[in-house]
Specification:
GO terms for molecular function: nitronate monooxygenase activity. InterPro entries: Aldolase_TIM, NMO. There is one protein chain. By secondary structure, the chain is an alpha/beta fold. The protein is built from 11 helices and 14 strands. Helix 2 packs parallel to helix 3 and helix 5 runs parallel beside helix 6. Bound molecules: flavin mononucleotide.
């Protein structure tokens, strides 16, 4: 049963990394302390000393294991070296190939590798690279979206691919509560990965206005309006904020480079300006026109009614899944 844990953790619940710096030490430690898999997100540039500090700061807040995520599209070799030297429990990778040799290097350093992918073909590549677990991301997911298909059709096919392999399969995309958790288990997953639900927690570094929007709004859209210059070819799912609805048909030749500055922020200790249509979500340090900044969210965001402590999210999933299975399925009369 999925809630009994995967990869040595109490539960098969993964807090998806929230770029660029929204899943920091406080969120990751809160998730780890609740028995689930918290994932830090390293910067998109090489900065191994900073990565070490991030890991060490998290260790002052929890003595439980946790993970660190790297987006392979950006420079990362030195950062990964630091992650392996620090011997965190999990290295999570996404948005690129992670060959078998690198996977084995991580495993030999005592670090398990989880690869987040969006297609059956990429799941097969990850399987052949002998990863320790695979996250399959459906089209419903918030943030940058690898998945082109809905989870309902994709997940069981990937489960068939992995059957007999002992590699845990983790479902991501639009899962916000115990119903989604149980559905993912029924479709063949051993765990779930949630981004948006953990974004809407007390410990996440999302800006308070962003958190309010996650509670208030219930519509998202798959788009390429934001961050076209910095990260081309990376479609994303965002909240349909009034700003987004005004600009959803942004002409193809436009991108953030030529746009006015709408705010300022500090990301992983570096001060940055935010231009209109940048792909940078507002974090707790961001100032300026917050409502006109990108706000990533998964398709079922309408299920989020309150900002919770991250530990409550985990507790509700586990207790909710157990009682749902007891009430809805175990008592059912098969005749
Ligand atoms: C704000 C935000 C930032 C994200 N950043 C990353 C990231 O840096 N790396 C990554 O692999 N996935 C990232 N994701 C995607 C998650 O790993 C996960 O696939 C997704 O959140 C699942 O869908 P859900 O948001 O509906 O739960 C992000 C998602 C959100 C909402």
């Amino acid at each position: 049963m999925g809630w009994r844990g995967i990869l040595g953790f109490d539960y098969g619940i993964v807090q998806g990394p929230l770029g660029p710096d929204i899943s920091g030490p406080e969120l990751v430690a809160a998730v780890a302390n609740a028995g689930a898999i918290g994932i830090l997100r390293v910067p998109d540039w090489e900065t191994p000393d900073y990565v070490r500090d991030l890991i060490r700061k998290t260790r002052t807040l929890t003595d439980k294991p946790f993970g660190v995520a790297v987006v392979l599209h950006f420079p990362h070799k030195e950062n990964i070296k630091a992650i392996l030297e620090e011997k965190v429990a999990i290295l999570m990778v996404s948005w690129g190939d992670f060959p078998r040799a690198l996977t084995i290097e991580a495993q030999e350093a005592g670090v398990k590798v989880i690869h987040q992918v969006g297609t059956l073909e990429d799941a097969e590549k990850a399987l052949n690279a002998s990863v320790d677990a695979i996250i399959i991301q459906g089209h419903e997911a918030g943030g940058h979206v690898l998945g082109k298909e809905g989870l309902f059709g994709l997940l069981p096919r990937v489960a068939d691919l992995l059957s007999g392999s002992n590699i845990p399969l983790i479902a991501a995309g639009g899962i916000m509560d115990a119903r989604g958790y149980v559905a993912a288990l029924a479709l063949g997953a051993q765990g779930i990965c949630m981004g948006t639900r953990f974004l809407a927690t007390e410990e996440s570094y999302a800006h308070p206005i962003y958190k309010t929007f996650l509670v208030k709004m219930d519509k998202t859209e798959y788009t390429n309006v934001f961050g076209r210059s910095r990260w081309p070819g990376a479609p994303h799912r965002v909240l349909q904020t009034p700003f987004f609805n005004d600009w959803r048909n942004l002409p193809d030749h436009e991108n953030e480079d030529s746009q006015p500055i709408i705010g300022h922020t500090t990301i992983h200790g570096k001060e940055r300006v935010i231009r209109r249509f940048a792909g940078t979500v507002p974090n707790s340090t961001t100032t300026g026109d917050i409502e006109s900044m990108v706000m990533y969210a998964g398709q079922s965001v309408g299920l989020i009614k309150e900002i919770w402590p991250a530990g409550e999210v985990v507790k509700n999933l586990v207790e909710g899944a157990k009682s749902l299975l007891r009430q809805q399925f175990q008592d059912a009369d098969p005749a």
